[in-house]
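Whiteboard transcription, Tuesday session. T.W. wrote the structure tokens on the left side:
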């Protein structure tokens, strides 16, 4: 099975969610199922069916996270000597060539991506256009909305 890149922060978030699911959510749902069973007839017991459905979601999410973590290649960008190049995990401050508008992105794994927080997937056109470039370079990005030209102002490894 192929290894999936994940930042240290992304792996930590998944571990925290997994711990919460196993230590808080799972026991809460088990108690809700037991309580609903105590009410009698299970065929028409909405609380029982809702709790069983929630239990299914929790168990599926636990399996999903465990699978992601077992296939993850956790990359600590602070230990990489990239000599100012944009690499997985790097934080990049760029400026639009046309408008000069500045934006900061962090290149992360697909499961961590959240463009609203400036976290872009390593598989995205934006990240593919930036990876390998250095501070001061200009990157041409073939995005779904058209071609963009970005000047790389700063590359940080945090």
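and on the right, the sequence the group agreed on:
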């Amino acid at each position: 099975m192929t290894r999936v890149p994940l930042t240290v922060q992304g792996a930590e978030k998944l571990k925290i969610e997994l711990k919460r699911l196993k230590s808080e959510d799972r026991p809460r749902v088990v108690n809700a199922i037991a309580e609903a069973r105590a009410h009698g007839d299970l065929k028409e017991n909405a609380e029982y069916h809702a709790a069983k459905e929630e239990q299914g979601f929790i168990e599926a999410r636990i399996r999903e996270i465990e699978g992601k973590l077992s296939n993850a290649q956790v990359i600590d960008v602070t230990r990489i000597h990239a000599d100012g190049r944009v690499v997985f995990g790097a934080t990049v401050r760029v400026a639009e060539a046309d408008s000069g508008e500045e934006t900061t992105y962090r290149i992360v794994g697909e499961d961590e991506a959240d463009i609203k927080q400036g976290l872009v997937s390593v598989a995205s056109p934006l990240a593919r256009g930036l990876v390998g470039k250095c501070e001061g370079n200009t990157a041409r990005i073939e995005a779904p909305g058209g071609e963009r030209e970005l000047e790389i102002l700063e590359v940080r490894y945090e």
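Someone added at the bottom: The radius of gyration is 22 Å.
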